[in-house]
Automatic annotation (TrEMBL):
The chain crosses the membrane at residues 6-26, 47-68, 74-94, 101-121. It comes from Geodermatophilus siccatus. It holds the Pfam family DoxX_2. It is found in: Membrane. It comes from the Bacteria. This is DoxX-like family protein.
Amino acid sequence: MNLALWIIAGLLAAVFLFAGSTKLFMSREKLAQAPGGGWVLDVSAGFVKALGAVEILGAVGLILPALLGIAPVLVPLAAVGLATIMAGAAIVTYRRQESTHVLVDVTYLAMAVFVAFGRFGPESFTV
């Protein structure tokens, strides 16, 4: 299970690092043109940038604390934070009637919950 948790955490970290970077460094108008990106026009540019920064921090929080052995309790906390973001994303895409993107959001949500459950419970970094 430890290997599965590391793989899922690595995949989530890569996804959120990419997604956060695009939100942080691309313009709102360019993001809106991407498939499923119309939601950015419903919120402020500051919110999009802040969300991007939080996603990058979450991606870092999934890997670095465990890798360095410094405050590894941050790994499941980062997973809970990213799960919360994905729950919100699923709600927004559902309201926008973008069913394909809802499935993607729910998949990432399930992956984040798996990491949080595993790292808080059976495969915790604390003894």
